[in-house]
C-alpha cells in the first residue's frame, strides 16, 4: 500500500516537472520569435531616413525661396482622395499654424502640387494638378509659349491653349508663368510627353507628366507672397 502511494507521488512529481519543462520551452519559443522584430525596425529606419531627406529638402527650399516668398509653412499630407490618384489632399496644418486659402503647395523637391482651397483650425485641404478645378497658367521656358494646365487623366495632366503650330516639343519642361495670381511664377510643374498638333484647330494641346507625383509628396511646403 505504501509503495502504491509512493508510485502515485512519483507520478505527480513527474507531471509537475513535465509541465515546468513545457512552460519553459514555450517561453523560449516566444523569445525566439521576437528576434524577427528588429528586421521590421530596419525597414522603419529606411522609411525614416527617406522622410528625413524629404524634410531636409524642405528646409533647403526655405533658403531658395526666402527672397521671393515671405511666408513658408511645412506640413504633412495625411489623406488623399481618390486613392487611385491624388485629386484632393488633406494636410495636418490649419489656420492655427498660419495656413491661408490660396497658398501654393509644393513638394520637398520644389515641384508644384496644387493650392489650398479650404482651411480649418488644425488642418486644411487642397486640390492638386490632377483636379480639373485647378487651372494653372503655365509657360514652356525654352520657347516662351503660354498655355493653361487644366487637370487631366492620371497619370498625365493636360496643357491647353498652346499655339496652333507650337515650337514646343516632347521633353520640354513646363513651369508656372508670371501671368497667374493663384500661383507663384517659375515653379516647375512637369515635362511634356506628347503634343497634339493640328492645322485644323486654333489651339494645340499637350500631355504633361507632373513631377510632384513621381518624386513624392508626403511632406509639403506652403508658400505665400
Structure description:
The chain is α+β, with helices and mostly antiparallel strands and 225 residues long. It folds into 2 domains: 1-67; 70-225, Beta Barrel (Thrombin, subunit H). The chain is built from 3 helices and 12 strands; from the N terminus they run ααβββββββββββαβ. It has helices at residues 2-33, 37-65, 211-215; strands spanning 71-81, 88-91, 104-107, 112-119, 124-128, 135-140, 145-150, 157-162, 173-176, 188-196, 204-210, 219-224. It has a 6-stranded antiparallel beta barrel with strand order 1-2-5-4-3-12. The protein has a 6-stranded antiparallel beta barrel with strand order 6-7-8-11-10-9. β7 (145-150) and β8 (157-162) form a beta hairpin. The longest helix is centred in the N-terminal third of the chain and has 32 residues, at 2-33. The chain starts with a helix and ends with a strand.
Amino acid at each position: 500500500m505504501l509503495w502504491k502511494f509512493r508510485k502515485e507521488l512519483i507520478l505527480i512529481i513527474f507531471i509537475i516537472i513535465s509541465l515546468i519543462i513545457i512552460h519553459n520551452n514555450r517561453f523560449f519559443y516566444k523569445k525566439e520569435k521576437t528576434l524577427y522584430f528588429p528586421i521590421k525596425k530596419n525597414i522603419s529606419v529606411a522609411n525614416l531616413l527617406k522622410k528625413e531627406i524629404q524634410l531636409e529638402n524642405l528646409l533647403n527650399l526655405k533658403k531658395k525661396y526666402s527672397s521671393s516668398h515671405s511666408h513658408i509653412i511645412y506640413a504633412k499630407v495625411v489623406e488623399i482622395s481618390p486613392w487611385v490618384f491624388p485629386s484632393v489632399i488633406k494636410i495636418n496644418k490649419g489656420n492655427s499654424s498660419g495656413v491661408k486659402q490660396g497658398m501654393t503647395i509644393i513638394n520637398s523637391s520644389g515641384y508644384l502640387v496644387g493650392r489650398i482651397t479650404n482651411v480649418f483650425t488644425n488642418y486644411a485641404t487642397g486640390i492638386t494638378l490632377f483636379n480639373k478645378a485647378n487651372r494653372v497658367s503655365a509657360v514652356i521656358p525654352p520657347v516662351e509659349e503660354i498655355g493653361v494646365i487644366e487637370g487631366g487623366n492620371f497619370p498625365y495632366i493636360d496643357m491647353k491653349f498652346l499655339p496652333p503650330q507650337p515650337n514646343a516639343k516632347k521633353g520640354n519642361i513646363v513651369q508656372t508663368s508670371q501671368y497667374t495670381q493663384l500661383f507663384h511664377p517659375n515653379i516647375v510643374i512637369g515635362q511634356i510627353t506628347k503634343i497634339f498638333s493640328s492645322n485644323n484647330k486654333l489651339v494645340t494641346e499637350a500631355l504633361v507628366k507632373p513631377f510632384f507625383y513621381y518624386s513624392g509628396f508626403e511632406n509639403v511646403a506652403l508658400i505665400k507672397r
